[in-house]
Amino acid sequence: MDILVMMRKGLTQRQIAKKLGISRNTVKKYIDNQGYPEPDRSKTNRKSLLDPFQGNIAAWLEEDIEYKATWIYDRLRTMDFPGSYEIVKRAVHAIKDERQKIAYMRFETEPGFQSQVDFGEFQVENADGTINKLYLFSMILGFSRKIYSEFVERCDLPTFLDCHIHAFDYFGGVPEEILYDRMKNVFIGKIAGKDKFNGTLVGFALHYGFKPMVAPAYAAWVKGKVERPYYFIREGFWRGYGFICRETANRDLLQWLQLKDQRIHGTTHEVVSQRFERERPQLQTLPPQAFDTSWRIYRKVNKDCTVRFEGNSYVVPHTLVGRDLILRVKDRCMRIFEDDHLIVTYEIPEGKGHLIQDKKFYKALTMDREMNRRKYGHGNPGKGRAKCTISPIKPLYDMDVEIRPSYIYDRVAGEVRI
User: Fold this and answer.
1) How far is CA 302 from CA 153, 297, 316, 374, in A?
2) Where in 331-412 does DSSP place strands (E)?
3) pTM of the entire predicted model
4) In this predicted model, what pLDDT tens digit does every residue of 256-297 receive, in sequence order?
């Protein structure tokens, strides 16, 4: 640039070279090319000591791209390679860079179209040195980058769906689709070439009106919008945080996220909260009633009018014996349904071997005359049904009996009667 500026001022090539302390040929080269000179491609490439072994290196890396340059160098030495390790390292590095080069397409979603969901693991060190695990659920809206996050103690399906409901309430609506990775609460597998989702999640998605989507395997960049905020929360909020309890941590985390919504996002170059105000009207409205996220368990009623669950027996009406009932279990509470009709609600006790009952059910059993008739005959008190037995008077077989004097039996027995 200095050469071209001096040339425009009228300086000769000799004067420019003298001022810049370079040769006249260099000045002439840059003036002729008006900038950076084109490389001289007429020169032939210099031969390398590694040229005879390039095929071997390529074959080894084709077999396993994780082979180290040291491993390849040791094997080349046994093949009488005369060069140094540095030559091999540069060649291996160049081949790996070329084969591992991946290009990604950035995509931005329309307002209200997509959100992304993921779980992360955090650790809490107790006073006695033991470690407890907490899990962080996060949902991020793809357009505005607004985040809802919540610490939970378990990653089971009811907790997972409860976190969705809390996120929808926080956003004030539901996106058209939600993108997940292949977690067991979501993805079962591919059947006939199509993604198969957990049945309860499908019912949940139908209730709220969104479409579940699953990212390809080993493709974390597809969910980059929700992957990056975990580092953002871990370093910005969690590191150095004085943990007291999970409820306090969740409250502090939401306050921190609301404060961070006032920042200018590095990708969108807009304030997160302002961008969310444009996205909020595009979210789908919430249903009038929340989805029941409790466990759904099917049990058959035994003859003693009970259903069994985790080592305990729960009494139900005797009219349901032999039928299949639905147990909805959550937070030590059990609701028992026949189809969509609620029969009874019980509190689940600690331990096993308990009989949990509502006394009115067994009382109704004792008052059911038809049931007593089936169990005790005609149901007349004090009378039972007599069995048909063989008469003691009439013999079963006709027999002729001969009467003999007693001395005959004594003679047979070898006794002498006096």
Assistant:
1) 35, 16, 10, 17
2) 333-338, 341-347, 355-356
3) 0.60
4) 999 999 988 888 889 999 999 999 999 999 999 989 888 888
